[in-house]
Amino acid sequence: MLIKFTKMQGLGNDFMVIDAINQSVSLSKTQIKQLSDRHLGVGFDQLLLVESPENKENDFKYRIFNADGSEVEQCGNGARCLARFVIEKSLTKKTAITESAAFKYSVKNTILVETKKGVIRVAVAMSGIFVDMGKAIWKPKDIPFNQLKNENATHTVNGYQVGVVSMGNPHAVLIVDDINQEIESIAKKIQNSGDFPDGVNVSFVQITHEFKVKLRVYERGVGETLACGSGACATVAYLDLIGRVNAKDKDIIVDLKGGVLSIGVNEGDRILMYGHAEFVFEGQVKV
């Protein structure tokens, strides 16, 4: 099987993007893991499969696979790459929006994308890409999360106080004083706690200003990445909920290793993300 692909990145979070509309693609977990290898394969944090939608009212469906071959529900940086991919590859007749603010108030030229956990809206502007990630999910059973006690979505997991939230995929958010501290051992303790049946992405956030935070994310099935869009959204949603930031008044600048995202919360409590996505190279690989 010869597969044509595009390598893309969003703030250093890198993807192998495959058009599965115009070519037949079927990959096993082992094959995906081999392709993700940065020495022996293409190399990526996640693989994105762009498919035709199941509901004709939507524009696309996309599937997301981690480097270990596991399929996941959501990826904010991947959503931005998908939006640029389908427009520049002429897979949609929708075009880039000219008013960035229009994305917040209308659906004109926005692309409806099916994920495992629902439909998201994305739009490409001249300056960057906007994603409406939907509402944050707080109910433990819907995250899923095994603990039922809930005080402002804050729980104790293996001795660590974390905010637990889903953006279509589960996140645990730790507020820290020093973003440069060692995080891998802590992240693994939380991931291995048994409280998250589907695993969890662990975010470490340092609040540096009323409207600015620094963030590192240790993702399930990948490890620490240079950026995590859904992690940035989950973090801002949690900090807004507990009153540490006010994302409804002004977008929060999230400073990640790979670059910067802007995250806001609109009047309907939907999480809006703005950032960039770039093409790296194109190729084909025999599987």
UniProtKB/TrEMBL annotation:
<dbReference type="GO" id="GO:0009089">
    <property type="term" value="P:lysine biosynthetic process via diaminopimelate"/>
</dbReference>
<dbReference type="InterPro" id="IPR001653">
    <property type="entry name" value="DAP_epimerase_DapF"/>
</dbReference>
<keyword id="KW-0413">Isomerase</keyword>
<feature type="binding site">
    <location>
        <begin position="229"/>
        <end position="230"/>
    </location>
    <ligand>
        <name>substrate</name>
    </ligand>
</feature>
<comment type="function">
    <text>Catalyzes the stereoinversion of LL-2,6-diaminopimelate (L,L-DAP) to meso-diaminopimelate (meso-DAP), a precursor of L-lysine and an essential component of the bacterial peptidoglycan.</text>
</comment>
<feature type="active site">
    <location>
        <position position="75"/>
    </location>
</feature>
<feature type="site" description="Important for dimerization">
    <location>
        <position position="281"/>
    </location>
</feature>
<dbReference type="GO" id="GO:0008837">
    <property type="term" value="F:diaminopimelate epimerase activity"/>
</dbReference>
<feature type="site" description="Could be important to modulate the pK values of the two catalytic cysteine residues">
    <location>
        <position position="171"/>
    </location>
</feature>
<dbReference type="Pfam" id="PF01678">
    <property type="entry name" value="DAP_epimerase"/>
</dbReference>
<comment type="pathway">
    <text>Amino-acid biosynthesis; L-lysine biosynthesis via DAP pathway; DL-2,6-diaminopimelate from LL-2,6-diaminopimelate: step 1/1.</text>
</comment>
<keyword id="KW-0028">Amino-acid biosynthesis</keyword>
<feature type="binding site">
    <location>
        <position position="201"/>
    </location>
    <ligand>
        <name>substrate</name>
    </ligand>
</feature>
<dbReference type="InterPro" id="IPR018510">
    <property type="entry name" value="DAP_epimerase_AS"/>
</dbReference>
<feature type="binding site">
    <location>
        <position position="66"/>
    </location>
    <ligand>
        <name>substrate</name>
    </ligand>
</feature>
<comment type="similarity">
    <text>Belongs to the diaminopimelate epimerase family.</text>
</comment>
<comment type="subunit">
    <text>Homodimer.</text>
</comment>
<keyword id="KW-0457">Lysine biosynthesis</keyword>
<keyword id="KW-0963">Cytoplasm</keyword>
<protein>
    <recommendedName>
        <fullName>Diaminopimelate epimerase</fullName>
        <ecNumber>5.1.1.7</ecNumber>
    </recommendedName>
</protein>
<feature type="binding site">
    <location>
        <position position="13"/>
    </location>
    <ligand>
        <name>substrate</name>
    </ligand>
</feature>
<dbReference type="GO" id="GO:0005829">
    <property type="term" value="C:cytosol"/>
</dbReference>
<feature type="binding site">
    <location>
        <begin position="219"/>
        <end position="220"/>
    </location>
    <ligand>
        <name>substrate</name>
    </ligand>
</feature>
<feature type="active site" description="Proton donor">
    <location>
        <position position="75"/>
    </location>
</feature>
<feature type="binding site">
    <location>
        <begin position="76"/>
        <end position="77"/>
    </location>
    <ligand>
        <name>substrate</name>
    </ligand>
</feature>
<feature type="binding site">
    <location>
        <position position="46"/>
    </location>
    <ligand>
        <name>substrate</name>
    </ligand>
</feature>
<feature type="site" description="Could be important to modulate the pK values of the two catalytic cysteine residues">
    <location>
        <position position="219"/>
    </location>
</feature>
<feature type="active site" description="Proton acceptor">
    <location>
        <position position="228"/>
    </location>
</feature>
<feature type="binding site">
    <location>
        <position position="169"/>
    </location>
    <ligand>
        <name>substrate</name>
    </ligand>
</feature>
